[in-house]
Amino acid sequence: MGSHRFSTSDTYPNWIYDGSDIPDPFGYGERAVQFLRALRHPKSRLPGGAFDLTPWQERIVRRIYGPCHENGRRIVRNVAMLLPRGNRKTSLGAALGLLHTMGPEAVPGGEAIFAASDRKQARIAYDESIGIVRAIPHVEKRLRLIDSKNRLTVSKTAAFLEAISADAGTQHGRTPLFALVDELHAWKKRDLWDVVRTGLTKVPGSLLMVISTAGRGQENVAYDFYDYARKVARGEVDDPGTLPILFETPREADWTDENVWYAANPGLEDGFPDIEGLRQMAREAKERPGEREAFRQLHLNVWLDHSSDPFVDMLVYDQGAFPVEIDDLEEYPCWLGVDLSSNNDLTAIVAAWQQSDGYIVHPWFFCPEDNLRGRADRDGVPYPEWSEAGHITATPGNVVDYRVVEDQIRELCARFNVQEVAFDPHMARNIMNNLQEDGFPAVEMRQGWVTMAPAVKELERAILGRRLIHGGHPVLRWNFENIVVHVDAAGNKAFHKGKSKDRIDGAVACAMAVGRAAAGESTMSIYDSDTFEEEMGWF
C-alpha cells in the first residue's frame, strides 16, 4: 500500500491492498490474469507493448474469477466498480470483454456486449478492444470486424462482442454471457438496463460488470445499483454474488487533500491519472464553485446532489426522515401550501404542523395518468413506481385534473384543523373561488420575493437546524434535490428549477406551508399533546 493511501469510508475496498488470500480452487483467476498479460495495447509503454495490468487491477481480476462454487461455477455475477476518471477502467473492461469473447471464458456462439447511454459512449470500450486485438496481428486475422454494426466476431467459434446503446431502440432478445455497462450514472432511461439484466439471467455463469464514475441525485438506476453494492460492502446485505469495488470519497472529506486523491484514484500510484493535471484542476476549482463540484464528482467519486447549487445539503435534509404518523396530528393547527402545475408539471399539496421551533410536513402529489412511462423517461424518475406505491396520485387523462386536487383539499380540511390553504393565484382562481364560496380558508400567496423570501428563509432555518420532519417522502426529496437558489442583492433567496425538466413543485408548496405556519397566530404544538410520542420529535 502506498504512503498516500488510506481507507476513506466503510465501503472502501481494502482487500485490494491488504495481501489477503483470494481463493482460486480451479485456477480460473490465474488463467484470466495470464490471458490479460498476453494481450497488447497500442498505447502501452511496457516492453513489446504488453497490456499494463497493475497490481491493484490484478487483484480485482483474481477476485472476480477465482472464487467458485464446488461445481466450478464462478461465485461473482455482478461487479459494481466506481472509479474516477483517468484510472483506465475502460481499458480493463475492454480486456475482460475479450476474455469472454476469445479468451478462456468464451463459449461457442457466446455474446458479450458493451452497453452505454449513447452510441458515442458505447464505442469507447469497443474501440479500446479493437485497438488491443489489432496490436496482435495474428489474432486480428482470426476475427471478423463489422464496424457498421460495432461487432467483433471470432470466426472459428462465432462468439462475438458488440457495442450497443440506450438510444438505439429496442434491444430485446439479448442473452449476453458478459455485459460491460459503462458510465451508468449517465443513463437517462432504464429500458436497456432492464434488457441487459434480464438477458443475463438466461445464461448460466453470466457476468455483469458496471463501471462508472459517481453521479448526481438518488432517483436514478445508477444510485439504486450502487446503493445496493454499498449495503453489500458494509455487510448489511449478504450477497456473495455481488462484488463491490467502490473507490468513493465521503462528502465531508477535504477535497484539496492529496491523500484523499490517492485514496480515490488507485491508478495515481502507477502514474495515472496525471497528478499535475489534477493539481491544476484543483487550483482552478478553488476559485470556481462549478469546477469544484465537477472535481469532487468526477475525480474523487463524491456522489452529489442533483442540483449543482443545492438549496441545502441533502445529507442534512435526510436527517428529517423520521416516520410521520399524520393520524396523530388531526387536532393540531395545520397549514396547507398548494402549487398547481401546468400540464406537464407535478401538482403538490403540502401540509405543515408546528412542533416546538420546527415543523412536521407531509405532501400529496398529482400528475396525469396518461403516459406515466414516457414522463418517467423524460424526467429520469420512476413515476410508475411512485404511483403504484401511493406517493403520487395519477389523475385521468393527459393533464392534471384540478377537480381531484380540489376534492383532496376539501378532504384534508375535513380531516385536519386547517388554518389556511395558501395558493399562488396565477393558476388557482377557480379552485380558490370554489373553496372560498364554501367557507374554506383559501388565501393568496404570490410567488414574488416579498412573500416567498421569508418563507424560504424559515424553511432553510428549519432544515439546517434539524427541525423539519418530512418522513423521507421520495417525491418531495427529489423536488428539494432539484432546487437551484437565486439570491438577490439583499440576500433574499428564491427557488428555481435547475433545468426545464426538473420539478420543484413540492418544495415550493412546502415553503408556502411552512411560511404560513410561521406567520400563524396559533401557539399550540404537538408538545402540548397528552399523547405525544418520542418518535414525533428529534431527540
Core attributes:
539 residues, alpha/beta, Nucleotidyltransferase, domain 5, 2 domains, seven-stranded mixed beta sheet, 18 helices, 35% helix, elongated, P-loop_NTPase, Terminase large subunit, Terminase_largesu-like
Short description:
The chain is an alpha/beta fold. It has helices spanning 28-38, 55-65, 89-99, 119-134, 137-140, 191-200, 221-233, 258-264, 275-287, 289-300, 314-317, 372-379, 383-388, 402-415, 429-437, 449-464, 474-481, 505-519, and strands at 78-82, 111-116, 143-146, 151-154, 160-165, 178-182, 207-212, 242-246, 333-339, 347-355, 358-368, 392-395, 417-423, 442-444, 468-469, 483-487, 493-497.
In CATH's first tier, which class of the largest domain applies? Alpha Beta
Number of separate structural domains: 2
Supply the CATH architecture of the largest domain.
2-Layer Sandwich
Main sheet summary: 8 strands, mixed
The name CATH uses for the topology of the largest domain is Nucleotidyltransferase, domain 5
| Share of residues in strands | 15-25%
Enumerate the spans where pLDDT stays under 50 for 5 or more consecutive residues. Answer: 1-7, 521-539
Percent helix = 25-40%
Distance N to C terminus: 42 Å
Radius of gyration: 27 Å
Describe the structure.
The chain is α/β, with parallel strands linked by helices and 539 residues long. The chain folds into two domains: 14-212 and 224-245, P-loop containing nucleotide triphosphate hydrolases (Rossmann fold, 3-Layer(aba) Sandwich); 314-536, Nucleotidyltransferase, domain 5 (2-Layer Sandwich). The chain has helices at 28-38, 55-65, 89-99, 119-134, 137-140, 191-200, 221-233, 258-264, 275-287, 289-300, 314-317, 372-379, 383-388, 402-415, 429-437, 449-464, 474-481, 505-519; strands at residues 78-82, 111-116, 143-146, 151-154, 160-165, 178-182, 207-212, 242-246, 333-339, 347-355, 358-368, 392-395, 417-423, 442-444, 468-469, 483-487, 493-497. A hairpin with a 5-residue loop joins strand 4 (151-154) and strand 5 (160-165). Helix 1 packs across helix 2 (55-65) and helix 9 packs antiparallel against helix 10 (289-300). The longest helix has 16 residues, at 119-134.
